[in-house]
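Task: sequence design from structure.
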């Protein structure tokens, strides 16, 4: 699979020195290190963890995963003609390219051939797995996977935003750190030219955690303006929190 050309260009122009963000306490350092050593040997598949993340269940067999990829592409407007006869590797490539906004319905799919793991692929796999850890309440494992992803691809805005979101909104107090959240979220938004509604929302949450509610309201309003209709209610609820001087916490 190929990384998004726009992301690659942004990463090349990235002026910040990005490195895995340090954890705020030595106890948390030790917990993240333990989590990293315990998860490093687990197999990675960006498609497996994407499917589990967004469908909320484990896909037990490869056929289940490829069916999800096909169904998801069809949901986003790809026709039966475009999807008919695609091999699993081709489905994986097309799915990844579409969600990185490289390919849209009606356009030529990415190059076919054997799937080859790249640093970008592996970084996204760590990111998706980190998101699953976070959903399950395993925050040390999530931080470890986000750090591993940034070691592979320091300029990945998706990973930076995911790490910022965890540091800004984590229900476990020991993993919240407003300064780190603002740093990571600002870098993510810089890479996407402050045009990604979800990353602007993360930047707003980060400023709220840091106690800068004026900045939180500013970025939350921009996020709300750019968000798709289905996401506007959640954006509005978070904006209301910041306007009353309260940060957002994941339940």
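Answer:
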């Amino acid at each position: 699979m190929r990384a998004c050309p726009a992301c690659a260009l942004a990463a090349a122009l990235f002026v910040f020195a990005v490195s895995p963000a340090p954890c705020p306490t030595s106890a948390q350092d030790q917990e993240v290190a333990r989590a990293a050593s315990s998860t490093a040997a687990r197999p990675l598949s960006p498609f497996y963890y994407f499917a589990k993340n967004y469908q909320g269940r484990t896909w037990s067999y490869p056929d289940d995963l490829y069916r999800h990829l096909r169904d998801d592409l069809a949901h986003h407007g790809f026709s039966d003609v475009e999807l008919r006869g695609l091999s699993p590797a081709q489905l994986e490539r097309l799915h990844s390219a579409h969600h990185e906004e490289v390919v849209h319905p009606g356009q030529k799919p990415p190059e076919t051939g054997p799937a080859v793991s790249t640093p970008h692929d592996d970084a996204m796999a760590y990111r998706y797995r980190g998101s699953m850890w976070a959903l399950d309440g395993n925050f040390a494992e999530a931080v470890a996977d986000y750090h591993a992803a940034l070691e592979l691809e320091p300029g990945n805005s998706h990973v930076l935003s995911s790490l910022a979101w965890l540091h800004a909104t984590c229900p476990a107090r020991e993993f919240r750190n407003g300064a780190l959240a603002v740093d990571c979220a600002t870098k993510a938004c810089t890479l996407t030219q402050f045009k990604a509604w979800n990353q602007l929302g993360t930047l707003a949450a980060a400023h709220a955690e840091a106690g800068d509610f004026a900045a939180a309201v500013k970025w939350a309003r921009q996020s709300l303006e750019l968000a798709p209709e289905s996401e506007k209610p959640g954006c509005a609820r978070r904006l209301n929190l910041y306007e009353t001087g309260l940060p957002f916490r994941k339940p």
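Residues 31 and 75 are 40 Å apart (CA to CA).
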